[in-house]
Every structure is written in structure tokens, then in C-alpha cells.
Amino acid sequence: MKRLSYNGLDSFGRERLSKSFFMRDFLYSEIANFYGVPNIPSDPELAIKAGRHLCEELLEPLQDQFGRISIRSAFRSCEVNQLGNEKRHNCSVNERNYAAHIWDRRDEDGLMGATACIIVNSFVPYYERTGHWEALAWWIHDHLPYSTMTFFPKCAAFNVRWQERPKRHIKSEIPPRKGTLTKSGRENFEGSHEREYAAWLACCAT
User: Fold this and answer.
1) 158-163 and 179-182 as β-strands: parallel, antiparallel, unpaired?
2) Cα–Cα–Cα angle for 66, 72, 74, nearest 5°?
3) What is the DSSP string of 79-116?
4) For 74-124, how does the pLDDT look when each residue is reduced to its tens digit (9 = 90+)?
5) Distance from C-alpha of 76 to C-alpha of 115, rounded to nearest angstrom
6) ∠ Cα 37 7 78 (to 5°)
7) β-strand partners of 170
8) How far apart are CA 95 and CA 154, in angstroms?
9) What's the CA gap between 57 and 154, in Å, rounded?
10) DSSP label at 58?
11) Which of the listed residues 27, 44, 76, 86 has the most CB atoms within 10 Å of its CB?
């Protein structure tokens, strides 16, 4: 597909995805900056469409509920993601990242999706005091239409993915509880998990 011109990229970055977020907020990449590879989509319209769902259905509700969120990593072009995989910078192969960090490609089932790695800033003190990352994971599971989440040790940053056909699967890279927290078919999947986040919400209210 045709690459964006400078003026096209400037306009692309100004696309408003939701009340708080613009496309430019999701284009920063350490890999792209360090290696000098442009992080520009080959299908801008698909990237915008997927990004709007991510922002409106997941990021805005989180920010409305808990205050400012920080974006650690989000959109990656195929070129940037492939380089990240080749250099072993924690990027999976492109095919596994379609409709995830690669917003401008549909996955093997033809589904649209988008992923961002974020930090809920107000959650960090509670997490650093308790290590209980599951509080945030279960709140999102009970309240928002996410597809997948993967939590990481530093500041409880996590990948959150919107997808047309949500999988509802939560994983963790945080020891000692690494692995799957829940997925469809697990005994803990259904019902309310309020007991897991009640203490955190009580802290938020004080």
C-alpha cells in the first residue's frame, strides 16, 4: 500500500480517536527511534478504525474511572515490529501481532483489533505496596469488553487488546504468579470478582 506523505502523516497524527486521545499519542516507539525506522501504517484508515474502538471502549472508561493513564507502547508498523522481533526486543512475529500491536492488519480470521501497553497511574502505589496486580485485571474483566491482557512487573504495565471477537484471556509475566489468570472455560471466569478489587477501590475512595 502507498506510504503516507509528510503532510499525510501530519494529518494522520491529528486524527482524534476519542475525547482524550489522538493518533499521535500511539505512534512513539523506542525501536523506531533507536534504529531510525518510520513507525507509519500502510493502511491508515484501518489503524484509525481499530484505534477508535480501543480508545472508546477500553482506554477512555479506564481513564474516566481511575484518572490519567500512560501509554508505554501501542501501534507498530510491520517493519518496526519485525525489527523488534529480529533484535529480540520482546516483539512476537508479525503474524501473531496482526490486529494487536499491528493495528493496520487484520488477523488470520479477518478480524480487526488494536493493542496498547499502558499504566494506570493511580494503581501504581497500591500495586507497589501489595503486589496485587490481579485487582486491576479483575476490575477490567468485570467491567470492560477487552479481548486479552498481559501484565508485566514494572508499574503493573499491561497490554490491553480490543478485538472484534473478544477472547477474554488474562495472562501475567509477574512472578511468582506467572501464567494464565483466567480464560473462557476456567472455573474463575464467570461471575463477579469484586472481592479481588474491593480493597483497592477502598484505597481510591480515601
Assistant:
1) unpaired
2) 105
3) HHHHHHHHTTSS---HHHHBTTTBTTS--TTS--EEEE
4) 999 999 999 999 999 989 999 999 999 999 999 999 999 999 999 999 999
5) 10
6) 30
7) 149, 182
8) 27
9) 25
10) I
11) 76
